[in-house]
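Problem: given the chain below (370 residues), write out its structure.
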Amino acid sequence: CTCETGIEKGPLYMNHTKGGLVIFTANSHPSSRELGKRIAERLGVELGKVQVYQEANRETRVQIQESVRGKDVFVIQTMSKDVNTTIMEMLIMVYACRTSCAKSITGVLPYFPYSKQCKMRKRGSIVSKLVASMMCKAGLTHLITMDLHQKEIQGFFNIPVDNLRASPFLLQYIQEEIPDYRNAVIVAKSPASAKRAQSFAERLRLGIAVIHGEAQDAESDQVDGRHSPPTVKTTGAIHPSMEIPLLIPKEKPPITVVGDVGGRIAIIVDDIIDDVDSFVAAAETLKERGAYKIFVMATHGLLSSDAPRFIEESAIDEVVVTNTIPHELQKLQCPKIKTVDISMILSEAIRRIHNGESMSYLFRNIGVDD
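Solution.
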């Protein structure tokens, strides 16, 4: 049988004649291995035997305890709070598989680390490009990820990248778990996320609302390095007859909601929930405009710092995220947080890559803005 996401349920057919399949979980944290166990169970295989641990001097050590020669290796890595350690675990394990003569090494990173640092900021650097280069250099031959913060990150790799989407699972949750969702409106908490909100609204045949005028976003063009002129005027640096026009500074207007949310369910959609201040502020604005119930839906629930406490004390009724990142501790602190399992689509992607089947089935009806 099939579910509404279009992916067949039940045991997945594995072609074991193509050199064998090995699935490793690179994360040494127990709660982060849960997703790998779910994927292996769906594929009907056992997780590969590997030891990943920290030595007394905080160096990461990886010991693969079975043969991977001539096999298709899939390394599943979810991000923990110590993101730099999890990156090193991934790199060392991939390199270990490469030197052990694995046929192919596919990284499965549901949340790609440092994806927010994908643009030049003043005198900073594009860190996601650095991470991509390190993974390719370590020996990755393919990458499976989900809802990249910016789709252009795929261009940082010189290997194939499959950027899967969690939206079918979130849409299914809305249809099945929100009884009166026909009376809902999809909300973008800033103009930057309007395209994602429009995609959800069109699929659910609902209206859309956009909140405009909130506090300056950290990713605005104002902090881009191209808008940082020299502080001191140097004589002779520019020809006297040339006057470079300065860009007029941006000024945020008062907070306004474009669209009607009065007497409706408001569903705020985004790709990442990390610092929840902007979501809490958006929920308060929507309550003032007459929304009687507020949901927040996102793919990646980083929920850093005091996010669970802020959510619990806010006007938000429910936060729905997927299990791309483990957040069991945050759920214990805040019962408003709900989880949607996306192991099904990851296991299907692994099965198709291992069997040499087309991946286009997993991208049916996916638009440019999804």
